[in-house]
Structures are given as structure tokens and as C-alpha cells.
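Researcher: Next sequence.
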Amino acid sequence: MNSESQAGSRRAGTRICVEHSGMGTLGDIAMLRNVTRKLREQLPDTVFSFRGDEVRAYIPLIDGDGTFQGLQDYYEGVKRWFVSGPHKLFPKKGRARALDALIVLATWRLLAAARFERLLGSKALCPREARSFFAAIRESRLLFSAGGGGMTDAFLYDDLFAPCAEAMVAKVLGKPVVFSGQGIGPIRCRLGKKFARRGLSAACCVTFRERESLGTAGLLGVKGPQLLCTGDDAHDLPVSQDRVKSARKRLEEMFEATPRQIIAVNARWAAYAESEGQDPGILLDVCRAVGSAPGVGIIFVPMLTNDSAEVAAYRVVQEKLCGSPPSNILCDLRADPVEAKACVAASDLAVGMSYHFLLFALSSGVPGLGLYASEYYRQKLEGEMERYGCTESVVDLRRSGWRQDLNRCFLSIMDRYHDIASTLRGRQEALSREIGVSLERTIALARDDQ
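Model: Next structure:
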């Protein structure tokens, strides 16, 4: 079948709306690429519409067909209107509660518009900022909410309003909702908890990537057989052994002297130093701890595709450590998740904070050492390490004795290196089967309508 006939078949086939609340990192792209690849294997004529303009630049990398505007603009518009003047009508202590009430009313308006449309076929009540989303859902078989850690108020308290409201609207319009590989929490504000509960309750299938998220859903009052803990959708992103061998050879040739060991490092906490309350100089101590032995080479692997802060932190460390151990430090910029995973898989150890950076290592049988400096990352990394049987391979950078913890954890991993690597390789197939649950459910829902 030529490309034109394939495009025609897709236009006439099943349309799936993919909601994604990530940041455009290589990990996010890896999740979306893996999901579309698997669904297209079973549903070759599927047309994908991805939420958000930030995804548009990555469509060639994720095998997507187009984008639609989600409900972020709608909620941001409500918030902008409130702070432009009406907030002055309330005492300072009551403004947050007033904004919450306004958001609830705005959500009722969305749901009323959805009910009005479904019952009477009229689009008259649909808010202007929500028309793109309503149109996308109207033309789709289902809403698939791709994984990630976006269902939290750890950064902005309203981050989770849009994806949860989208699930609620889709359900009212009669469209099935699937949440796949989700990370939930921490959620501190009461309204955020209500949104999460309503959003998750709208789904016919919810899979979480760590057990703590499953427990958080239970505390929110969302329970049932449709909730499962399976893992992250990027786990089995395919990378051939030939590509890994080629990456290893390339990395060895990049160093002046061929290292006996290559340690991949990701310093995401350095890029988020201000919000995490951490000194980027932590990266210096980490590099000294894991790279001071003779014959060790360090390769920095950035995971942020839209932020130069991470790369800038690497450059500072390279300059400061020049001429002192470890001096064997390089930065490998990969714009494609498969290439980045091959680079990490070609290393002997991965050390860092990024969830998907460590996932690239663990899913390739490479031991990882996780570092976190906030409750958000604690939940992510402890849950990730638990799934791969490496519960002791995490270090809390908030502790005053974190340097001693890091050294102890690093030495422990190196002492048990072969056992850890063997355990990781032995878990891959079982984890891949578990992760397929949400996609199997999605495929069944899509075929039910055909």
C-alpha cells in the first residue's frame, strides 16, 4: 500500500484523541512513540490527534497525525480574567477560595455544554476556548490519556484541572476514557483532589506506573477492578542491540582514553534548581563521587528538549572539573528518544533524577542510581525502583548526609553489579506484559465500534 492510500485509509479509520500533560522531554516523546507504534500495529488505520501545540514539533518522532487544543487555555483564561480585576472584590484571605469556586463553575459550564450537545445535538453552549477539544472528541472513538507525572499540583496547583476535565467531558459525550501509565500526586489542594477523583472516575480503564499512585487513587475514593498498577508506557521502547553496540563504540571513541566504565549522568535537578531549592553544585559532588576512580568516563545525557539550563549545568561542571578527577566528562546531545536510550543502554551505570532517563537504563538491564530532592520525585523514583527490584538504589538529596548515602549506595551497586543487572534482565518480559493492559483495553474499545 502506497503512502497516499495509507493516508486515505487512516482518514477513514478509527480516530483516537491522545491527551498528554508532559513537558516535551525525550521521555514524553518515548511514551507517545511507543503507544502509537503498538496501537498502529493492531489498528493500522488509526488516526491520532495529540493535545497541545508543544507536541506539534515532535509529531515526526511520535508517528502522529495532528494536534488539537485542549482545555488548558480555557482554564488559563478563567484564571486570567479573575486576576485582571474581579479578585479585588474579595478579601485577600478569600481570593483563593473564590478562584476555586470560579473554576468549579467554569467546569460545570463545560459539562452542561457537553450534556446539551449530546441530548439536543446543539453546540451553542460550548465555550470558544473549548471548541477545538469538543470537535476533536466529537470525531473520535475514545480519549487516551498517555502516561506521565502531570496529575499533581506540585508545580502549579491547576496543572491537573485540564486533563481531568477533558476526561469528564469525554464521558458526558459518550466517549470511553483510558488513563495509561499515570503517576498521581502529590495533590495538596482540596479542589485538585476533587478534580482527580472525578477525572479518574470517568475512565473505564486506569493503569498506574507505581503502587503509591494506586494507593493515592484509593485515598481519593477511586477504587475498582478498572484500576491497575502496570508501569510506564516507555518501558519497552524498542532499541536494537546493533544500535546499542554502535552507541558504545561511538562513546568510547569520544573519550581521549578508552574508559573501562562509562557512567551516564542526568542532572535534571540542576535545571530545576530554583524550584527544587537545590544548588546546581550538587552535580559536582555527584560526579566526584561516581567518577573519581581511574578509567571511569562520565557522559551527560540531557532529557529536556526545550530547555538549555540542563546543558548549561553540564558545561559548568566540565569547566570546573577540568584537570582534576573525574576529567573524563563529555556531553551527548541526542534529539531522538531511541538514540538517547541507546546511549544510556550502552553505559555501565545511570545516575540521575529524570524518571525516563533511569527508565531507559533499567529497561535495558543497566543498573541505575536515583537521586531526588522533592516529594514529587521521591514518589516517582522510589516507585520506579520498586518495579524493577532496586528499592535501595535511591538517595534523598534533602538529607544532610546525602553525600555519605550516595557513596554507600554507589559502592553497594558496584559490589552487586552483576546480580542487579541479571535481576533487571529477568524482569523485562513480565513488565512488558503488564504494561500492555491499557493498550489491550484501548484496542478492544476501538474495535467494538467497528
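Model: The chain has two domains: 3-234+432-448, 241-415. The radius of gyration is 23 Å.
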